């Protein structure tokens, strides 16, 4: 028997790694991938709870999360292409037009 | 219910169509507009029949404001009074719309004109149909707006634009009184619905006083006086009448519809609607009566010497409105409304006919440049004569019945009534005189027209003359619905009887009543004859008199210099001087100081604050995450 | 027992490959570690009796999204980063911050009242039920999700196409 807390801890670890990735990396690709990591952490939670609570809703939400992730990836990658084309860089700290 | 909602809505749809698509409809906008008011008229007739059969409608159909214990609904009340007003408003509106097709033909603002007229009709109908003070006020303000728009219709002309502003500003003063009265009604009665307010209006309430700047004033008296301030603004009574003569800068159909037949009677309607309140306060009633009588005489004296054809009629309108208030003030509410109804017909007729004269003379309005027109524009002459006879109060024209009913009620209203009756009779004499002075100067005597103008004189097209003839027909006959003397023959008063409290019954001395009638007709006839002698027989008399009494003459010609006085007191004195002080201290120091100070403060704060904005997204996200960590941390601390 | 060993294996590989994903200099390597991660997450889903989701995870995430990443990375030909500018200057702080988050969630789990030892384990695969639920109870969200995908598709094309094309 695998305790539910193991899954929660696994997803917490994955989520934390995703957060650290988003906050530290300069390359916008890696940042996007870190976001995918966080989404997957959430998915693991959803499926685990769905399993332990005998309720399919969690699994259905995973499908929606994957859908949104796919749409997000498509749009985000298009934006990256646009940025790289117009500004010649994929490093986020070089986009500073929002600087006050 | 839908039928009744459609009465105001049809003109509103007409307004939307004519207003929004006027550019494409061009002159077809008139068809839409006439359709709108005609539909409203048809439904109004049906509503009138319903009311005559005893169906009183008082229904809310939308909850408008619901704050605390203030609850205002949008609702319509159609009782006898409203039914009469609906008939007057929609009927005249329809005729004047039709007339305007001819009068405004070729004007570049044609569709705009009809859109405004439709909007006016809509608001006027809302005003008379509203079942609480706030809905009435919406109509009240709306007609004021339309009046402004239509007076300044030819806005390229500076005098027209100024007249519009003057009308609007003067009305604001009155509206201020109306709003204050409305607030006092709410604090006193806790509601704004007519039925609820009037149900609570009892003599016990009339005995209550409130402290106003150290003076004890009866609360009902104060409410009535404040409402009456509103009425003096809208209905052009002393001291707020000054805008109405200037309002003649607008197109003539507007003068007929708004500044003679309907909108200016809104004040009369409002006082009549609030009859249960007014009848509780003797002071307020006396103020109404005296204001009315003084205005009636005052405006008539100015009307004696004016030379602009429309201005004479404008002053006569002010004077006739004075009679209506005089009637209301002595408790003869149905007589006041009766005069309102007959006046709407013959004054609308007079304005439209004068429009026809102006039309014939290519825009000339000065009576000194007219004369001898009776053979050239026969129809206009005939209807003008009918209108003037009605105005002068000659039997059996409409004005006779209503004016004598008012004067008879005034005569019976105690000692104050007797003196007001004298004032009213003098006014009636002057009315007869100046209205026939107008006829003689315009249609009799030698032609004083410019040669070019004389060459072009022509009768108006049927689209204008047919409405004139219809109005002329009603100016002769409408009076018979208010037959005096014979018991139960006064259909009008009987119809309105359920709405008004019985403050005072006319005297029962029929002999005296007939005597007074004959007397007042004789007085009016004297005025007509005198005008004939002065302006047809021996035209030197007026000039000689003007020379002899040049002081009085100039004073009258300059309308008692009231405009100048108001200019000096309020426009120059109050507005300019006070505004100067307010500008230097209030605006520059306080308002600007505060605004600039706040701006500077924020500027300095943001100088520092902007350094936090590194533009570095990850930093923002980090701060956000830090917040999350702190929140979860707090959860542990608290738990 | 065997289940626990399998889970621990999956968990270890997931965490390890996640760490490698966010630390590699070359984005292509990152994507490949991510692929590894997705396979093992699919394994965890199988452990949880969610075979359908495991398949979706592989097909959509590994098969579609990651390939998209790979395409773009190669399309833009991102250079190998030099050692100094892989992460921003305060990365040690953020790692510490990440540890705090993990510790906090761990505390939450330790104190929590989850059915930690599992209640009734669902033995059915549930694909049929999933499908029925998806097309009845969740029909509207499902359709909206498809619209979102369509919008994403159109948006991506609109954004990425050159202005003067």
In short:
The complex is a heterotrimer of chains A (100), B (639) and C (165). Helix content of chain A is 77%, strand content 0%.
The overall pLDDT of chain C, averaged over residues, is 84
The CATH superfamily of the largest domain in chain C bears the name: NADH-ubiquinone/plastoquinone oxidoreductase chain 6, subunit NuoJ
Low-confidence residue ranges of chain A = none
Distance between the termini of chain A: 55 Å
H/E topology pattern of chain C:
HHHHHH
What is the rounded Rg of chain C?
Answer: 20 Å
Molecular shape of chain C: globular
How many E-type strands of chain C? 0
Taken together, the total number of domains of chain C comes to: 3
- CATH top-level class of the largest domain in chain C: Mainly Alpha
Please write out the topology.
The complex is a heterotrimer of chains A (100), B (639) and C (165).
Chain A: H1 4-24, H2 28-52, H3 57-87
Chain B: H1 2-20, H2 22-25, H3 29-52, E1 57-67, E2 70-78, H4 80-103, H5 110-129, H6 133-151, H7 158-189, H8 194-200, H9 203-206, E3 209-212, E4 215-218, H10 219-234, H11 243-246, H12 252-261, H13 266-273, H14 275-278, H15 282-303, H16 309-329, H17 333-360, H18 378-392, H19 398-411, H20 414-443, H21 451-456, H22 462-477, H23 491-496, H24 510-537, H25 540-548, H26 550-557, H27 562-609, H28 617-638
Antiparallel strand pairs in B: 1-2, 3-4
Chain C: H1 2-23, H2 27-47, H3 51-76, H4 91-111, H5 127-135, H6 139-160
Helix pairs in contact in C: 1-2, 2-3
